[in-house]
Amino acid sequence: MPVKSTTAAKKKAPAALPPVSEKLNLEFEVFDPPQKTVRGYITASDTIKGTKRRVAHAFLLPEGESVLSLDSFGAKLTPAELTRRAEIFLLFAAKLKDLDASR
Hints:
Elements: H1 22-25, E1 26-35, E2 38-48, E3 51-60, E4 67-70, H2 79-101
Antiparallel strand pairs: 1-2, 2-3, 3-4
């Protein structure tokens, strides 16, 4: 007859997520003068399981709308991580709009 353990398996508490900020999560540069067809770039990153990874990127164009991409890497996110990612995307969108308006 199998013996059941009386002690419950202890789960590690999830590590606190670092705060979202322009300084920590965004990198951007506007070239002066523009380089051929690109005026600059903006990149958003997030720390996923201890590794900093790009989650969005956009090229700033001299004319027209910026060309952007959202990166997908198959990570499973908790609700807290999903909320954090949404905050990073909102920060990215606001900065992209600001950089586009500064042409």
